[in-house]
Each structure stands twice: as C-alpha cells, then as structure tokens.
Design a protein that fits this description.
mainly alpha, transmembrane
Length: 179
C-alpha cells in the first residue's frame, strides 16, 4: 500500500506541475500575441518567452529530481521555487494594491517610453494621444481620419483595473499552488 501511495504521489507531481502549465501558457500567449500582430515589441515577447522557458526548466529540474529521488536537485528546486514564489507573490500583491492614480502614472511612463507599444495601442484600441487628442500629431488609428478620437488613457483605464485584479488574483493562485 505504501508503494502505491508513493507511486501515486510521484505521478501526481509529474502530471499536475502547475509551474509547467504556467510556463507553457506564458510561452503560448507570447507567441499568440506576436502571431496575431497584437504585440509588435519584440522585447516584451522576448522577456515573456524567456521567463516561460526559465520556469519550464525549473519545473523540469523538479520533475527529474522527483522521479530519480535526487535530493540535491530537489533541494535546489525548492530554493529556486521559493524565490519564484516571493517574486510572484510580490508582483501579484502590487497588482492588487495599485490605485487609479498609480495606474495612470505607470501607463504614462510606458506610453512615453515605447513608440511601438504606443502605435499598437492606438491601432488596436482606436484612440489617439494619451491624455488629449491632438489632430496635428500622427496616429495609426482609424478614427484619426475623422478627427473624432478619444484619448487612449480613457480607453485603457476602462480595462486596466480589471486586468490588474485578474492578473493579481491569478498570480496569487499560482504562487500558492507552486509552494
């Protein structure tokens, strides 16, 4: 009976590794975003794919350590997983703690620092400018021809709070399932 229980624990560890699911999901979403033209910034996609590959390799180390009963691999897996938990928990709490003013400031910093993301946002959300619409500036959105565009901050703010709560909640869920 003890051998069966240990075998089931080992199989459960192998098949339900949430870290592997998160890493593959991260890689898949990044590839999907660039494949459909939603994200043109290769830096953002590259970071998402690199983090996904890192998490997958960490999960693979844990899987090999569990299957081979290798205590050193499992020790380092748990140390790295603890560090991943701390980072993921901190980022998730930060996502849940941001208020509207802080969100607006972060959005403006991102808006001013990346031209490719600005063009993607204007094109995908059909808006022009950040706080105000200026018909003298260039804009890739369809509404620019009619000069009846909304500022992008108003459009982004509709979704940013909801997205931050969703990402924070999912991050907390996965951070606790990893431990």
């Amino acid at each position: 009976v003890a051998v069966r229980c240990f075998l089931m624990c080992k199989l459960t560890w192998c098949f339900f590794s949430s870290l592997q699911l998160v890493s593959l999901l991260l890689i898949g979403i990044a590839a999907w975003g660039i494949g459909f033209g939603l994200i043109s910034s290769l830096r953002v996609v590259g970071v998402a794919i690199a983090v996904g590959i890192f998490l997958f390799l960490i999960a693979l180390v844990g899987l090999i350590g569990a299957v081979k009963h290798h205590q050193v691999l499992l020790f380092f897996y748990m140390i790295i997983l603890l560090l991943v938990f701390i980072v993921q928990f901190s980022v998730s709490c930060a996502c849940l703690a941001l208020n509207k003013e802080q969100q607006s400031q972060l959005l403006e910093v991102g808006w001013n620092n990346t031209n490719s993301a600005r063009a993607d946002i204007e094109r995908n959300l059909n808006c022009c400018g950040f706080r105000t619409f200026d018909p003298n500036e260039t804009c890739l959105s369809d509404c620019f021809r009619s000069h009846q565009c909304r500022p992008c901050l108003l459009v982004i703010e509709e979704y940013s709070g909801m997205v931050l709560r969703f990402v924070g909640g999912i991050g907390l869920f996965f951070s606790f399932t990893e431990v």
